# Entry
Amino acid sequence: MISYPNGKKIYNKPLISSGNRGMDLEESINITNAYYRDNNIALIYKKPTPIKLVKMDYEKAKIVEAYFEQPSTTDYNGVYKGYYIDFEAKETNNATSFPLANIHAHQIEHLKKVIEHKGIAFIIVSFRKKEEVYVLPANIVIQFYEAGVRKSIPYQTFIEKGFKIKEGYALRLDYLKIIDEKFIKDFSK
Amino acid sequence: MISYPNGKKIYNKPLISSGNRGMDLEESINITNAYYRDNNIALIYKKPTPIKLVKMDYEKAKIVEAYFEQPSTTDYNGVYKGYYIDFEAKETNNATSFPLANIHAHQIEHLKKVIEHKGIAFIIVSFRKKEEVYVLPANIVIQFYEAGVRKSIPYQTFIEKGFKIKEGYALRLDYLKIIDEKFIKDFSK
# Structure
């Protein structure tokens, strides 16, 4: 996000080419979440990646040895219209399916628990080669994972049971539009 | 949390003396949240502290220079009975009041936004010398902060407008009991 001297916030980044090519999914979602926050639409953040801290230089308040840890939950959560929102975002270069290896077992477990506790859980998947980004409800991901038959979710499943996110400029990836129309409409607490 | 060979989870830590003395607030809340999660009561986590990464040793996947950053949100969030829960936890050695300097301006801003988006926002404050821990609704904190008259919230305000958390053994600091009784009862979405 760029702040200009007049205080107007510009939610853009130079696009390398058409669509969002050149901008990764995480960046697009972060920009979208900043837009949601600044326009009082929702309060959704990416969680920091946990680190295992081994050594500090306390005098300089500097971390001198640490390692990234596997997050035990999903990357994003927050609140929208009183609903708890929780999701994981992944990109794939695979054009025909989304490999389940991209989602860890404890993340599946986490998404299941979000549903149990009446939150709204889903994944956002970017098919890079198709330049298409989908919301897939977590229950579909869980079904595939637990069936254990396939190692991936077919692209066709995203067409049939997922929802394509319309890409925009200021509002890069308006995934909450889908949450509004497809989840909250018949979401009973 | 200790996992014993028989798989039974024990939510304890040796207590140094009476009460929770010797155990800090964060540790007590983490143990409580683990209890909530394992017993399918709620899904609440402490967010990792964000770091500013300066230098990596990529071969060893080791962080060799990084600094802790000021979190722009609160420390804890999650979902309980479909409600979005968001809070900050602080300890004080001050026996008569809670210094507002403990809460940063952007955290106050964040708590305000949580309320706007219909989440449940509060702070948990441990008065170490009294060995008492309170839930104080975020709107009270915001009022004090914005009034700008005092630099602290009197202990008396915690008695009058806050709710003392009952301390237990397995369920160390059952703050959700208060959320249930005092927030959700008349919490309209």
User: Anything to note?
Assistant: Confidence is low (pLDDT under 50) at residues 1-8, 13-21 of chain B. Chain B touches chain A at residues 37, 40, 42-43, 45, 47-51, 61-68, 73, 77-84, 86, 110, 113-114, 116-119, 189 (CB under 8 Å).
